[in-house]
From TrEMBL:
Species name: Leucopsar rothschildi (Bali myna)
HAMAP family: Methyltr_EFM4
Gene (UniProt): Eef1akmt2
Name of the featured protein: EFMT2 methyltransferase
PANTHER family attached to this UniProt entry: EEF1A LYSINE METHYLTRANSFERASE 2, PROTEIN-LYSINE N-METHYLTRANSFERASE METTL10
Keyword annotations: Cytoplasm, Methyltransferase, Nucleus, S-adenosyl-L-methionine, Transferase
A single GO molecular function term of this UniProt record: protein-lysine N-methyltransferase activity
Amino acid sequence: FSPSVLGTREHWDAAYERELQTFQDIGDTGEIWFGEESMVRIIRWLEKHKVPFDSSVLDIGTGNGVLLVELAKSGYMNLTGIDYSPSAIQLSEKVREKEGMSNIKLKVEDFLAPSAELSGFDICIDKGTFDAISLDPSDAVGKRKVYVGSLCRALKPEGFFLITSCNWTKEELLNEFREGFEILEELPTPKFCFGGRIGNSVTALVFQRK
């Protein structure tokens, strides 16, 4: 991928500072990455596989925290969101407060340099964070490897990793996460047709840690 400002912390700090101000002004929570259907897809998978409501869930790069709010509304109780942008965590705290979801834990954390307590989760969810890391102008390849190592530490053996990406195909993601993970399922995503070929603009996969 070509390096992009979308891979820099400065970009996301500025973006979430704007969204935080907008939320304080008019109560708008801001953009939902990959749209509402991406959250529904994740929650449906958890419900279909009868994942217990007390399972520990980590949202990697939580942004405005809306996914965690929807998980809480669906009955999940042990929820943690991290983001390396302090403004994102401030925004997600405001959203949590507005929705009355006091049981959601939120922390400023860089997943590429995580604290020791960021471990032992039953489920990790990534909706666009791995994509952003892949666009980092400084050593994106190295940072992707660090991400996989962080994920191995954060997730329990046999825990589930649900990733939604608009930059990577299924085959590419299988290659990126071949160390320590096996594919369980590809989730259905919207399809498009171009020049007679059918493709997916978004890839959503479920991995299990070995």
